[in-house]
Write a structure and sequence with these properties.
single chain; mainly alpha; Growth Hormone, Chain: A; 2 domains; 15 helices; 84% helix; 0% strand; membrane
């Protein structure tokens, strides 16, 4: 493969990073705008909760229905089509005159974002076989960065005549430009594959390895959602703090440097995949015992830092177990995250009834402890695939 200039080597990477950034952007922006959407359509808290669950449900079923399609028809086609669908979803949302039409737009948005999420990650894996482990840290950091920036844009748009719709208008314009750029960009590999990479691509999916990755993410994302959804209530209940929303922002903010650092330290992935859930479990246990607001902010920030390392390190092992079917395996992991988020978050209420907020957080810390032992097995299985 001839030597490529910096831009020709990284043009596809830039578009894939932007695609994932926009997924985090949409997630954070929708969460911030939901209150104002509810006010416009005169929705109760319960009805707003149903609107929030529409996106989560769409995110969960999309890879379940279309998970293997990208490996069959091509990742470029999938990315271009579903990025264009995101433009359509923005149009539906902007034209909505009632909550039902808005819900349709949000469902279409969640469905298409989920497809883009796993196909973009798989495309990065395929196009950059030499540096893909490092790029997994960068690509997951972009999601967190988008989730942090979007609420600021929502706050700004509320001061304009567009209100919360301004956020979705700007998103739609970016999606339109991204659709055109993806359509005009080639998806051929930008780096040569090593011989062991070529053999791995012909070996078929290593089901046991994929199952371990899915299990890690099932537990982790379930715990993450449990913490994020109930952190505000925990701080109000245990320390009479009304600033839990600041702690939540710190949690997401800490993920950005964590994931970039995982990218730079990708050669230590066999240690990081264990260290990340270990640190997260320890910090979550500490949080469950914390009753002072300032200390809680510090603990939550460090907790977010360790949590941020779980996803990128799991993704570095996708190509090792995918046998060339990177989109299929990434889709399976995406489904596991959706199921974990749904089941564990839904179970939090029962945990709270039995143990209270502090006890429920301690139970979640124990669940993360299970991830530690599962993560120890992953590097061993990867070594077997290299033989």
């Amino acid at each position: 493969m001839e030597s490529l200039s910096f831009w020709k080597r990284n043009d596809l990477s830039a578009l894939l990073l932007l695609s994932i950034f926009m997924n985090g952007f949409e997630t954070g922006g929708y969460q911030a705008a939901l209150l104002y959407v509810g006010q416009e359509f005169d929705l109760s808290i319960g009805q707003q909760g149903i609107l929030a669950s529409v996106q989560l449900f769409a995110t969960m079923i999309a890879p379940l229905l279309l998970g293997a399609l990208a490996d069959r028809i091509g990742k470029k086609i999938m990315l271009v089509v579903f990025t264009a669908v995101r433009v359509l979803s923005a149009a539906i949302i902007l034209l909505a005159t009632d909550s039902l039409v808005f819900a349709v737009g949000i469902f279409v948005l969640g469905f298409s974002c989920s497809i883009v999420q796993y196909v973009a990650i798989a495309s990065m894996q395929d196009a950059y076989p030499l540096t893909r482990n490092r790029r997994m840290g960068f690509i997951t950091a972009m999601f967190a960065l988008g989730a942090v920036i979007a609420p600021l844009l929502v706050g700004w748009s509320l001061s304009t005549r567009w209100g919360w719709q301004g956020f979705f208008l700007i998103s739609g314009i970016i999606f339109l430009a991204l659709t055109v750029l993806l359509a005009r960009t080639g998806f051929e590999p930008r780096e040569p594959a090593r011989e062991e990479e070529k053999r791995a691509a012909q070996s078929g999916i290593y089901v046991k390895g994929v199952a371990l990755l899915c299990f890690i993410m099932f537990i982790y994302v379930g715990v993450e959602n449990g913490v994020c959804f109930f952190l505000n209530n925990f701080m109000l209940d245990t320390m009479n703090s009304t600033r839990g929303y600041l702690a939540l922002s710190l949690f997401w903010l800490a993920m950005i440097p964590s994931r970039f650092l995982c990218g730079f330290l990708a050669k230590y992935r066999s240690r990081l995949i264990v260290a990340a859930p270990f640190g997260a479990a320890l910090l979550l246990a500490m949080l469950s015992l914390t009753s002072q607001e300032t200390l809680a902010f510090l603990v939550v920030f460090v907790l977010g830092f360790f949590c941020g390392g779980v996803y990128p390190n799991v993704l570095t092992y996708v190509a090792d177990f995918a046998g060339g079917k990177t989109a299929t395996v990434t889709a399976a992991i995406t489904v596991a995250t959706g199921v974990g988020a749904t089941i564990i978050s839904a179970s939090f209420g029962l945990l709270h009834d039995y143990f209270g907020f502090s006890g429920a957080f301690m139970v979640l810390a124990v669940l993360l402890g299970v991830d530690i032992f599962v993560a120890m097995l992953v590097p061993r299985l990867q070594q077997r695939t290299d033989r």
